[in-house]
From TrEMBL:
Lineage start: Eukaryota, Viridiplantae, Streptophyta, Embryophyta, Tracheophyta
Name of this chain's protein: Xylulose kinase
Transit peptide as UniProt keyword: no
Role: Mediates 1-deoxy-D-xylulose (DX) phosphorylation in the cytoplasm prior to the translocation of 1-deoxy-D-xylulose 5-phosphate into plastids. Can also phosphorylate D-xylulose (Xyl). Uses preferentially ATP as cosubstrate.
Pfam families xref list: FGGY_C (PF02782), FGGY_N (PF00370)
PANTHER family: SUGAR KINASE, XYLULOSE KINASE
Listed GO biological process terms: D-xylose metabolic process
Residue ranges of domain Carbohydrate kinase FGGY N-terminal in the record: 134-283
Amino acid sequence: MLFFLDLIAPHKQLSLKATVLDSNLCILTSEIVNFDSELPHYKTKDGVYRDSSINGRIVSPTLMWVEALDLILQRLQDSKKIDFNKLAAVSGSGQQHGSVYWKKGSSNILSSLDPRKPLVDQFGQAFSTRESPIWMDSSTTEQCRAIENAVGGPLELSKLTGSRAYERFTGPQIRRIFETQPEVYNDTERISLVSSFVASVLIGKYACIDHTDGSGMNLMDIKERVWSKQALKATAPDLEEKLGTLAPAHAVAGLIAPYFVQRYQFNKECLVIQCSGDNPNSLAGLTINTPGDLAISLGTSDTVFGITMDHKPSIEGHVLPNPVDPESYMVMLCYKNGSLTREDIRDRCADKSWDVFNQYLKQAPALNGGKLGFYYKDHEILPPLPIGYHRYTLENYKGDTLDGVTEHEVKEFDPPSEIRALIEGQFLSMRGHAERFGMPSPPKRIIATGGASANHSILTSIASIFGCNVYTVQRPDSASLGAALRAAHGWLCNRNGGFVPISCLYKDRLENTAFGSKLVATVEDDKLVAKYGVLVKKRMEIENQLVQKLGR
Ligand code: ADP
C-alpha cells in the first residue's frame, strides 16, 4: 500500500512537487515541476506576476497550477517507479492564504472531466479571474484596517479568527476583489484556497476548506471552527455560500475523480484527504504533534511553531487548529529578521565567514555579561519595529535576579559581543513570545530546520536558552513529506471509523522512516537555563519600551 501527495510549495510559489511514501513511511519516489522553466508560456518569474500598475499586487496564473498537476502525474507514470493502482490515499499542501475564484457553472466542468483531454484544455473557462492572489501580495492594507475596524479592532479579530488582519490573508484579498472587481466577485460561485482547489480538482467537485488552512483567512471562528458571521459581514456580501463548509484536516474530501482513474489508472477506491497549507503540513512533516513540541525554522526569515492546548489570542503571531489533532492548537510566530540579518552581522563583524562567526560566538560568554541587542535589518513583524539596531548594557547584572539592574543604551559592541548579542537576542525573543502565547516552557524538545540549522554553535545556544534538547531532521522538504504523512493519517482515521493520533502511524519506528530526527544539542547547565529565564524578562521589558517609542 502506498501514500502520495502533491504540493504547490517546496519553496512557496516556485514549483509543484510530488512525494510518494510506501507503507513503511519511506520515500518511494518524488518529482518536481518548476513553473518558470518548465511552463515558460505563462511567463512567470518565481512562479508569479508582479503587477507594476498596482503597488504590492502579486498573483499567479491559476491555469499554470492545473497544467502542472497533469505534467507531474504524467512524469510519475512515465518513471514507472510507482503503480498508481496501489495508491491508498492522496493529500496536498498549498501555499497558505492564496485563493482561487471558480466561475458560475464550474462545478459542471469539475464533475464532467474528459480523461482523453488534458486538464488545462478543460479549465480555460473555469475561473472568474485567471489570476490568483497569493501569499506575497501586499495590496490590501486598506481592506485589513476596514475589516479590523468592523469587528472592533485587531485584538478582537485575533480573538475571533486567530490572527489580526494581514495583507496576505484571504479575507482582505476577497474584500479587495469585491471592491475593485465586483463583476469578478459576482460571477464567482465558489472561492477555494490553493489547498482546497487542489483537493477539488482531485475529487472532481468542490472540496471543503480545512480548519487549519481556514484560519489563515481572517474568516473562521477559531474556537467553533465555523465561518464567523461577524467576520463574513466585515468582508463581503453573500460570502458564506461562496466558501462552502469547513472540515478537519484529517477528513476524507472524497474519492479520486474518474478522470484520474481513467487517465493515470488510479485505484477508484483511492481516498483524497483534505489538503492543507504549507506551514501546517510542515508541522505534520516534522512530527510536531503534542503540547511541548516546538519547531524552529531558520530560513531567510525565522518561523517558530508549536502546539498548545490553550487558545491565547494576541495581536502578534497566529493561532491555528492543529492539523493532526482536533483538540489542540498550532501556534505560529513569524520573524522577518532571520538568516539575512545573521548574514549582515557576520559580514560586518566576522570576515563574511560562519567559522569566524562561530568562533566569536564561543569566545563571548553565555549571557554576554549583560549585553543585549535588537537587530532589525528589515522592518520586523515580531515585535512591529522599524529598521534599526539597538544595543544595551545591563548594570549591576549578576544573572540570578533583575533586582537593581538597569540598562543603558550604547552605540556598539566588540565583534564577539555583537555576535552573541544577536544570537541570544533572536532566541530570547522567540522564547519570550512563545511563552507569552502559552506554549509550554521549557519545551519537551525542539526540532530545528532551515539553512542555519546546519550551524551547530547556533543550535547549542538554542538548547541553553530554551532549556531542552534540539534535534534536526534528515530531509529539508517537511511540507511535502507532511502532506504525504497526513494522507496516511486520514486513511488510518477513515479505516478506524474516527480520529486516531497521528503518532500511531510511526510509534517506535520513527527512526526507520523518512521522518527520523537526530539529537544535535543538549542542555549542559540547568543554572544557565534559569538565568536565561531571568534575562528574557528584561529583554521583553526593553522590547516593550522600543515598541512604545518606535512601534508601527
Ligand atoms: P529559505 O527560507 O529561502 O528556504 P533556507 O532554509 O535554505 O532558506 O536558509 C538559507 C539561509 O541559511 C541563508 O540565508 C544562510 O544565511 C543560512 N545558512 C546557511 N548555512 C549556514 C550556517 N552554516 N550558519 C548559519 N546560517 C547558515
